Amino acid sequence: MGKTEDLSNLSFQLAFGIIGMILLATFIIVFFVIYQRRLLQQQLNAQQAEAAYQKDLLNAGVLAQEAERERIATDLHDSIGGLLSATKIYVSNITQQLSTPQFELFKKKALQTLNENIGEIRTITNDLFPQSLEHVGVVAASRKLVEKLTELKQIQVDFYANKEQHFNKNREKVIFRILQELTNNTFKHSEAEKVPLHFHFESDQLIIHYSDDGRGFDRKAYDEKKDFTSFGLKSIDSRIAFLNGKITYETAPKQGVEVKMEIPLINPSIETNTNGKPY
Amino acid sequence: MSRELCILLMNIATFAALIPCLVTLFGIKNPSRIPEHRLLTILVWGGAGIGLLAYYMAAFLESPNLFLLHIYTIFNFVMMTLIFRSIIPRKIMYILLFAYCGFASINSIWFEHLQTLNVLSRSISAFIIMFYPLVFFLKTLKEMKARHLELLPLFWISIGALFYNAGSFFIFLFSKDISPHEELWITYFGIHAVFTIFLYIFFAIALWVRPKT
Fold first, then answer.
1. Which of A43, A76, A195, A259 has the lowest tally of Cβ within 10 angstroms?
2. For B57, what's the count of Cα atoms within 13 Å in the CB-facing half-sphere?
3. Residues 6 or more apart whose Cβ sits within 8 Å of residue B162
4. CA dihedral B118, B122, B123, B124 (to 10 degrees)
5. Which residues of chain A have pLDDT under 70?
6. Residues A14-62: pLDDT tens digits?
7. Pairing verdict, β A194-201 and A205-212
8. Measured between CB atoms, does B144 come within 8 Å of chain A?
9. How much is the mean pLDDT over chain B?
10. Which among B167, B169, B174 has CB closest to A10?
């Protein structure tokens, strides 16, 4: 009796152990296969999203370039073209038969339009490549840029920089273009009253905070736009990608925009303000 | 399970080793350069040879053949460790090989003699080999390089090794306890035969598949 019971116990334990181990092995294999498939799908989705994003950035870059060409062409046509035509008319009116007062009048008008021409060319070239950026650096150039908002729209500007620091010229230009895009948006669309712009140089990176208290926008809806009619932020994203930096937006309709950029510095050569104070 | 069925399964299991061997014959003209294939070929031919020799000795010569199990246990452990060498750190692999071979040899010479069942060696071997597929699964999940698992020989070897060793572990562990009870012994070694048949089927699939290059 005892022996049979022992045998039955042994048989039960053995069967229990085998079934348990087989179930465990099955669970591990099924879990592995399902989890691997899921991870693979996630990886694939991430790759597709990255490819789509890269395509978006490329599109934005191309469209931004085209828009910039169009803007330059319009500027040249509307201002320089018109002024040069006027100058031509004045100069062609100057003949030997003219009386002295008439001659003086046309000469004055022609010189006046030539001066206007020079001024316009200066404005356009400054837009294309600000001289201040070349001479005084990105902080001072950006300060001038935002101060235009006060001049043109009476927007209150709060500017701060812990120091001026020159680094790679190309990177400085790209940062300036980003700020130009942001100030343009503020100028054209935001109806803001206050614009803070803060530069903070750290040992290995530059942190820029830009914000306005204007209309803001729905970032999600903007990202989902596929028609590329408004590619301003995408061109900023492509520039940030070029800089190997990071950008974050905090915005919502009627709640203004807060932009934070973290840009790594390459070969920084530190230049402090002459009086040692922050800008 | 009936006694006849169990005996039939045990006989089938002996010859099931020939399935992967046949698969290797298909690759003679165009031999695989995958190390796992080459090592698995050695394992299945070695396993089939030892199995058939054991069958011949028992069925025709009626002489004791348990010493072959001692040899097969060490051979199987060495080959499985080498098959999984791509996922085992080299140092650990050498330690495992030397430690296990040393232990199994000492065990066969002084403790579980050649004409008895080597319960301890087989149980330890099954326990260690069970971890190889787990390490393979973990590494595959970490690396996420494999796009088509079903084309990886190591995937099928892992499934076979995990099922076989997980299922057989308790049979090996309790084999000394069940050996005096003939009916129980035949039943559980009938179950073990099922796992063995599955193992060889998975090995055959592993030898058949070729990963995309």
1. A43
2. 13
3. A25, A28, A29, B130, B133, B134
4. 110
5. 1-4, 223-231, 267-279
6. 888 888 888 988 999 998 989 888 888 988 999 999 898 888 878 877 8
7. antiparallel
8. yes
9. 91
10. B174
CA distance B148 to chain A (A): 9
Helix, coil or strand: residue A157: strand
A13 touching chain B per CB within 8 A: yes
φ, ψ of residue B212 to 5 degrees: the values are: -70, 135
Degrees (nearest 5) of the Cα angle B121, B72, B203?
110
Question: Chain A: residue nearest B149 by CA?
Answer: A33
Count the residues in chain A. Answer: 279
Partner B contacted by A28 (CB < 8 A): yes
pLDDT tens per residue, range A85-110: 888 888 888 888 878 888 888 888 88
CB contact under 8 A, A28 and B134: yes
Q: Token digits for B138?
A: 């973990």
Question: Whole-model pTM?
Answer: 0.64
Q: How confident is the model at residue B18 (pLDDT cuts 50, 70, 90)?
A: very high
